[in-house]
Amino acid sequence: MATHLTPASTDRHAPALPLPPAAGPQDWPAAPRGAIDAPPVAGPSGRLARWLAALQPRNRLATLATRLALRRRGTVPGHRFFVHGHRPRLIGKGQIHIGARVNLRGDVAPVRIEVARGAVVTLADRAFLNTGVQVICHSAIEIGPHCRIGPDCVLCDTNHHPVHQGDGVRVAPIRLGRNVWLGRGVIVLPGVTIGDHAVVAAGAVVTQDIPAAQVWRGNPASFAKAVRCAPDFIRP
Fold this sequence. Notes:
By secondary structure, the protein is α/β, with parallel strands linked by helices. Helices cover 15% and strands 25% of the residues. The strands form 3 sheets. An 8-stranded mixed beta sheet has the order 1-4-7-10-13-16-18-19. Strands 2-5-8-11-14-17 form a 6-stranded parallel beta sheet, with no helix packed on it. A 5-stranded parallel beta sheet has the order 3-6-9-12-15, with no helix packed on it. A hairpin with a 4-residue loop joins strand 18 and strand 19 (222-226). The model has no long low-confidence stretch (mean pLDDT 88).
């Protein structure tokens, strides 16, 4: 059975109420004067933005400042040496040798190179040190060509303090061969030699020599597997 709805008596006899007038521009809230008069703020776009990105003015300025700081130390970096982000922190009176096309990235945290008087740090051609890397050298640290050093790695050739009463402070050179890759947060301790093409997984602590073309991981680092590569292999 169909149900018919009839309006209530109050609705049937109630007079119609007038609608409020539509809001016009005169009723809109007034914007602050400065917001109307101020020109829109916009960064470079299009061709100008691409040109600035390619030019990298801040990075070039950091590179120039680092070159000048190295020259004051008696070091002349190789051609196409480049710094990204913050300038590296160069501490101590020792020697720093830098080859061609070496890149130091300091966009989050600067690379820190501490080299004591009489010690030598060598960064061979096309070595790359990522943000936050620390190189602490009291004897000799050599980073070979095409090495990739991941963020927050530490290479320290001294333990700074004796472990047992009567012991001396241990100081022993560190050497990385060709095309070595250290993952994020790797720590390399005194006296370690890492062979060509070797890979050390993130967070590992290297306490002993690593042969060429092997992957090591853990704390203390141990063998994980072999690296499959030709002798002339270079990681991109």
